[in-house]
Request: fold
Amino acid sequence: MWIFFRKFAQLRIKMLFEQEARLTVYPKELWSDQLISQEVLWPKIKSAIQQNRFPHFSLLLGKPGNGQLVLALSIAQALFCKTEQKPCGTCEACRKITYLIHPDLHFSFPLNKPKETCQQHYASWRTAIQEKPFMSISDWFQYLSDESKNANISVTEINNFSQLLTLRPFESDVTVLILWLPEYLGKDSNRLLKLFEEPPANVFVILVSENSELLLPTVLSRAQLFRMQSIQLDHASALLSDKYNVSRDIAYSTLLSTDKNVQEAIQLIEQKSSPSIDVLKKLLQITYSYQVGPMLQWVETFLELNREEQKKFIEWIQLLLSFVLRIKFSGNSDLDFPENQMMAYSKKLSNSLTLIQIEKWVDLMDDCHMAIQRNANVKILMTDFCIQLSGILKSSSSNN
Ligand SMILES: [Zn+2]
Reply:
């Protein structure tokens, strides 16, 4: 009787395992399958790993939405893979990297609480990467329950991962740290210099950056740099059009309007429009007619955004203005994307603004962006911004 129960229990456990294995639907096994337009860079890196020549301290650099995080994961998968193929996508190590559960793969990324470590947020981090592998920092903060005014990689976190890297690997011969957005390392990153200079023999540190200008010179001089290949519009629009079931034209124009930022393009395709257009329309309306009350109200709404979102909105206006300028110069001829709301609005603005007005506005946005970057008082800054924008919009069109 007892044996029967034990057998039954074993069988039941086996069934549960099998059931779970059947129910779990995982994304693609190889991270490198998700890379876009890296046909030259990726094989080069892969062959370096296969020949044991991949540097222990590397820096992957590309524009936002270019996929450098996906490349870092592809590299990690190849470094951990147990087969000659490196990466095979099927061995145990490869699969653990696919699901981001390999105990020797560590991550570090910006947070908003200086006392917390990234390990405490690994669950949200895994979800974020699986859902949005091309994500930006503001996408990431949506996965954290708190809002962020000042994203940062804190001393607590630096100490934590430095400690982790001194431990012997658990399952593999190597330990890998993917440090996402090292531009958010503060002055305390000086204590990492020794690690960057001579990483332990079994440690690989991969920095994943969007803006080399914000990196410490010491980091830049020590890391081996890999520049992402720029996203090819034809290639990327074919992929997005298949995946999101939109025409290639729409995928193409959306990618163009986001300056080839894949994640932003996906978001626009999913939303079918950009909410920023409405916010901007409102701003232009109230500043043009110089309505002080609504202008202050608009500033208050802007203050509700966190600092990353504020920067993103400014960057979005800068991008829109670059389209307005291009249309102004090309006379509409080479830009014809009727299905994209942003492009349509750019055309409208290019008709109603003079070149001098656009240039002044571009300068104003540059100043604004820099001031927010430098932690200016946003309320004063944006109030002044509204007044100046009002001046620009009302300035005489005879300057054309
Ligand atoms: Zn493998």
Summary: The first helix runs from residue 2 to 23. Strands lie at 57-61, 105-108, 175-180, 203-209, 224-227.
